[in-house]
Protein: Ammonium transporter
Organism: Paenibacillus athensensis
Amino acid sequence: MVKKFLFAFGVLALLFPTLAFADDATPSQLTGAIDAVWVMLAAILVIFMQAGFALLEAGSTRMKNAGHVAGKTILTFGICAIAFWAVGFGFAFGDGNSFFGTTGFFVSGLEEQAKSAFSALSFSDVPIGIKFLFQLAFAGVSLAIAWGGFAERAKLPVYFIFGILFTVVIYPIVAHWVWGGGWLAELKMQDFAGSTVVHLQGATAALVATILLKPRIGKYNKDKTVNLIPGHNQVLSVLGVIILWIGWFGFNPGSTLSAMGDGFFGYIALTTNMAAAAGAVAALVVSWMYFGKADIPSMLNGVLAALVAITASCAFVDTWAAIVIGAVAGIVTFFTAQWFEKAGIDDPVYAFSVHGIAGIWGTLSTGLFATPELAEKVGVGQAGLFYGGGWHQLGVQALGVFGALAFVLVLSFIILGALKATIGLRVTEEEEIIGLDLSEHGSYGYPEQMKKAGQNSVSL
């Protein structure tokens, strides 16, 4: 134990030299400082995932929309940050009832507010300001996922309005159910880092959007056959996925809110990585068998689907089970993406397949693979079906999935339906054809290339 504290003190001394002269630092203060630095680092990693989403979505869409798709990532994270600070964090983690929090609005960052309003987060001594930033990063990821269903055809004002409402009345309510002491927390639902809370919520909103917006121009022929609309830059998409993979080491291990103890966050990082690796290999192989060619976008979706799936179960399952969970996610996501496309649902970045279907599978997987030792260690729920726990935990997981899916589905239809009936969701046909870069922002993300392609710049 002494060696651990000496090592930790050395690390902190490198990061913050003034601590090297704090002769009166106690072990508990040192532990708290290390935990705070770890969670802050994890928050930065998760916020940096926005860069991954920007590159992935821009690369997966057409050149004429690349600037818009990347740029709205900054806009919407800014909207999310303000809305979550004002209201969303209080609804999610504030003390209240089984359905939503009623305290902790307009986060002050002071510990006095934390002690009086956020008992659901009291298990960690990390300062409330850092806890807020960490949870904000999660809300931002969920909103970024939702935008996948809007890609290449939604009006810019819709991002403002739906972004605020998603952050205030959709995302935080389900977060409270599971993580804020709500009714699913009381039932001991196992969703360690958010397969349902983060990914299924964002994916469900994306599904509603893509249904109400209807397919992009040219996606389907009159006989309902599908036309491929490839993204303009696979290299950007690959780089985006690599950034997301790295960011997930903040997403899942950071959810421990602690770096001390037995280093459990390292085990979570291991299961996270092994699932992602399995998803990449499984999805590429199945696409090779299906298409006769090894499809790179399918491999990228396999990585993300596996990461989504392991997000719920990373702290509850053995390493071998993480590999199984990741591989199944990669395969299932591939086939559901094909099915949705053939069914006439034009989901440009396959948001519901990657984050929704995989989120459902990942949440249910803990009800199958959770070990009794890890469930006891985390202190949530019990062993899964394959470890003698019976059907109870699987039933709780299924109830949580159904409740979250239904809630987000209904509210998203109400909000987006109202927007469609009033200001409209979709740009005009002419604006869609020339691209959202020009129609919404007045310039192309690739002005020289678009000129060469025969497009008119705004100055001509």
In short: The CA atoms of residues 282 and 303 lie 9 Å apart. The radius of gyration is 22 Å. The domain at 34-100+118-435 is CATH 1.10.3430.10 (Ammonium transporter fold).
